[in-house]
Amino acid sequence: MSIAKGIQESMTRGSWIRKMFEEGIKLKQIHGEFNVYDYTLGNPYVDPPKAFFDALETVVHERKRLAHGYMQNSGFPETRQRVADELSKDTGRKYGIDNIIMTVGAAGAMNVAFKSILEPGDEVVVVAPYFPEYNFYINNHQGVRVTSLAKDDFLPDIADLDRKIGPKTKALIINSPCNPSGVLVPKDVLLELAALLERKNAEYGKIIYLMSDEPYRKLVFDGQKAETPASFYDHTLIGTSHSKDLSLAGERIGYLAINPDTPAAKDLFAAATFCNRILGFVNAPALMQRVLQALPSFESPVALYQAKRDVLFNGLKDIGYDVRCPEGTFFMFPKSPLPNDLDFIEVLRRHRVLVSPGTGFEFPGYFRLSFAVDDRIIENSLPAFKEAFREVQ
Ligand SMILES: Cc1ncc(COP(=O)(O)O)c(C=O)c1O
C-alpha cells in the first residue's frame, strides 16, 4: 500500500467528521442553509475586527526591505517583543524576545514544543474531554498519550492526575477554557496542579512541562478573566494563536512562549526555533507577524459569542437537557439523553441537527455543539432539539 499504515488508520478513525461534513452539505442542498442546524464546525463565526483590516492595509503598503523574506526562524524581533510585553503583563513574569517563537497557529506551537522535548515513548498526559488533534501532535513526535478523565464538572481530577503522572511523563496538556467543555480552570485548581507537578518533579528528579493550549483564553464570558498556568508554574509552555480570538484561523498565526523561569529556557528556545524550521514551517507567516505588530489592541468578539451562548444554553436547559453553562470558547457539551452518544447524535441528525459525539473527545455520553453559528440556526434549531429530546424519553 502507498499510504503509511498509521496514517491510513488515523484517517479511517477520523472519518465520521468527514461523513458529518458531507451529510451537512447534502442536507443544506435539500432543505436550505438555515434549516439544517450544523453545530459541528469550530470555525469562528465573525469577521476579524476592524482594527485587523486597518493594520493589514497599513502593512500591505509598506515597502520595507526583506519584509516578505526569510527572517530568524523564531520570527520578527518586534513581533516577539510585542507578545513578550503582553505576556509579562498577564503573568507577572519577565518574558523577553528570547522566550517567544512565532508559529503556524497553536497547532504549530504544540508540534514544535513536542518535537523539541519528547523522546520516543515519553508520555503526555491529557485531560478528557480534549481536542482530539492532541493525539496526532503527540504521536507525530513518538510520544504516548495517557488520559486522565475530568471530574463531572469537567475540571481536572487532581487525584487521578496524581495516579497518571509517572516517571515516563514528560508533559501535561491543559486547555482552559476548554474545547469541548467550555470550562475555565480556576486559579485554585491551577495552583493545585502546579503543586502536584512540583511534587512529581522532586519525586522523579526531572522537569514535567505543562503545555498550556490557550487559543480561547481571550474568549471568556461574564467579565471573567482566564488565568494562564504560566503565572503559577515555572515550567509552563504556552501554545496559542489568534485563530479564535481575532477570527484568523486561516491565517495561521500563533506562538509558543517558554516560561523565562524554567531552567532550560535558553535551550528550549534554541530547540524550538530549530524545530520550527525542520518541521517545514520555517517561520510563521511574515505578513501576519507584521499585522500583529501594527494592531493597536486585541479585541475579541466576546459579547457576540456570549449572546449566542445565552440563547442556546437557556433553550436547551428549558427543554430539559443536562448542560453546564460554558464560561468561555464557543462550545457547549451537553449530556446525551441516551447512554450512547452515537445513538443520540443519530436521532439529532434525523431532526437535521448535526453535532459531534463526545466519543470523539474520549468522553462518551456527551455531545459537542459549536455555537459559532448564525443566530437563525440557534433559534430555528430549538424545536428540533426539543423533538429529539422527547423522542428518547
Ligand atoms: C483546543 C484547541 N487547541 C488548538 C487548536 C488549533 O488552533 P490553530 O488553528 O491556531 O492551530 C484548536 C483549533 O480548533 C483548538 O480547539
Bound molecules: pyridoxal-5'-phosphate
Q: Supply Rg.
A: 21 Å
CATH topology call of the largest domain: Aspartate Aminotransferase, domain 2
Helix content: 40-55%
**First-residue to last-residue Cα separation:** 47 Å
Averaged pLDDT: 95
What is the CATH class of the largest domain? Alpha Beta
Look at the structure and name the CATH superfamily of the largest domain.
Type I PLP-dependent aspartate aminotransferase-like (Major domain)
What does this protein structure show overall?
The protein is of the alpha/beta class and 393 residues long. 42% of the residues lie in helices and 13% in strands. The protein is built from 13 helices and 12 strands. The chain has helices at residues 5-13, 15-31, 50-61, 77-91, 105-117, 134-139, 158-164, 187-204, 265-278, 286-294, 302-319, 341-350, 375-391, and strands at 37-38, 100-103, 123-128, 144-149, 169-174, 209-213, 236-241, 254-258, 331-332, 353-354, 356-357, 367-370. It folds into 2 domains: 5-48 and 301-391, Aspartate Aminotransferase, domain 1 (Alpha-Beta Complex); 50-294, 3-Layer(aba) Sandwich (Aspartate Aminotransferase, domain 2), CATH 3.40.640.10. Bound molecules: pyridoxal-5'-phosphate.
